[in-house]
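Entry for the shared binder. Reason: the reviewer on the internal report wants the predicted structure included alongside the sequence.
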Amino acid sequence: MNPQDSPPSCSGGACCGGAPAQAPTVAISPMPASRAATAVYRIPTMDCPVEEAEIRRALEGIDGIRALDFQLAARTLAINAPAHVLPRALAAITGAGFKPQPVEPPRGEGAQAGQGRHDHAHGASSGMARLAWALVLALLAEGIELFAAHTTAFEVAGMALALGAIALSGLETYTKGFAALRRGRLTINALMSVAVTGAFLIGQWPEAAMVMALYGIAELIEARAADRARNSIRTLMALAPEEADVRQADGSWRVTPAAAVAVGDTVRIRPGGRVPLDGSVTRGISAVNQAPVTGESIPVDKQPGDAVFAGTVNGTGEIEVRVTAPASDSTLTRIIHAVEQAQAARAPTQRFVDRFAQFYTPAIFALAAATAVLLPLLAGATWTQGLYKALVLLVIGCPCALVISTPVTVVSALAAAARRGVLIKGGTHLELARSLKVVALDKTGTLTQGRPKLVHWESLHGERDANALLAASLAARSDHPVSQAIAQGLALRGDGITGFRALAGRGVEGVVDGRRYVLGNHRLAEERGQCSPSLEQRLQAHEAQGRSVTLLMGDDGVLAVFAVADTLRPGSREAVAQLRALGVTPVLLTGDNAATGQTIAREAGIDEARGNLLPADKLAAVEELRRRGPVAMVGDGINDAPALARADLGVAMGAAGTDTAMEAADVVVMNDDLRRLPETIRLSRRTHAVLWQNIAFALGVKAVFFVLAVFGSATMWMAVFADMGTTLLVVANGLRLLKARPQEQAASG
């Protein structure tokens, strides 16, 4: 990440409030890359973009920093700078109220993920114990206030207990809050620090202790709930085994750490075992469960030459696989990194909340100050009462629920989509999908299988079985896709062919039992003078349906006709029907001839089809379709790159294992299933609804308690419980998206 980039949206647990202002520019001194090194630090209390911005601001005046790479999901910061600059950078981070901890380079991606989960689990456990003690001390202080005699000794004991509770639960809040106040920043930590300190100073020390303890507990619960959304995709990393069975130079096998396996090595996967690395099958046949990577529910048959992906599960056959990518660059790893990077692309609703929060927290401070001054002057309240109500307003006004609800909801939706084999590159693209009006679909490889298949054949003269055997024998000797489709479709193989040769651009020929036979196209039949009017009519009927026609010919005439075509993918017709039900118009854009395009469009249920389109023509078509509203272009991510880039939403199909498609599109469908597109639209609409449910609920509850605080009898207890309850409810509402199933999405769509 470039240090000038704006901070990513909050993916962390404990909310920190305010608004993530525009990331300040970090001074970058040009220097040779060889003079700089990257050091990684874990910052346990860096939970959201506001705190990221604070750290950026603290580092902006330090010369020599080449780059900063923040990973809020892991709470880490990578600093690229010379060694002599790092102490100054660490001192600046510490001065901003954070405690950076050096991270040792992991042995592999899986080790890093596992270490992060272990560290966080340990931190959460120790934090809960500390907060439990803080709550006990706060309850004791409250008990002394309510039931003990109001003597100096009891007052001192109660205040000591309250101070202990505040120290145990609020030390980090105070550290970050006062650091923000010193720099003139009004954040949630600053707000809570002022509120608790003010309550203690006016004699409400039991309430101050209880508020800080409950706030700390709410923060920890929020952190764990938000981590569930952030880490839901990273749990996929545990699917890839840490060790692999690798063939050695002498032919023996040795168990080796997956991170140490080199590209080109051969690994063995036994039945029921998980594939440790991306590779290509070299020996064996099996069915592989690819659900963790592509979302396919049915195992996929694999044979030599087929690709397999790390984290998938081998079926009943033993296979050997040649490694094609290291553990750090597997398809599974790239999926995880893509989702993590997607969190940096904030959705429009997130940006709205950020802008709103930028003014919200300072407004709360101003309102509290006005309340403290005006109530005594205009309503006859005492100054202590006015100050207390002002402090209650500060607690009520804590924008925790508002700030944390949007990133948790968006990250949950991104993770839910990834588990279904759909990578959405950021909240912006996620929200845009709900407003699509037109979906432009490429034909080959998107609606269709992308490879020819024998769809019809008929024998004209001679025995049917003999003609089939002749055609299959000739076709099997050719590597042309049409010939291969005929050979596979007939599932026969004969021997005894001599004098075999290819006829460039026309077909193949060979001798069987002393007689010469030809398997060729329409043009070759015409050249041989073997096309009759009735045969021409038959061939034209096939060609009008977009089929490629091949004829088996002997010296006496045409013996059989074979029609080959690119067929619809399973689910394409259903996907088109679902798009229509969602109010989205599908349009077919293809480079094939218009007749073929119309045929495929009719089969798929599409009314509008355009053929004979070059890449530039597809780009112009997308431009025209955009007049109807937001347009998605669905293609293979390479040939359709111009149209994908110009569309409001670019969707790449069949991208498992390919970097190009991942980089070319805004949305990547890993398993070629077009039905994932209407699922994504429904998920987008549901996410948008949840986002605005959370915003309306959070603001509504705060409005009610504002009125109670000013004109009623709301207390700090009520305020903190309202804030904590609202925050937990909106977080839970956002996390519901993690469990969304396709049928539930359909119901909500």
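Summary line for the report: The radius of gyration is 33 Å.
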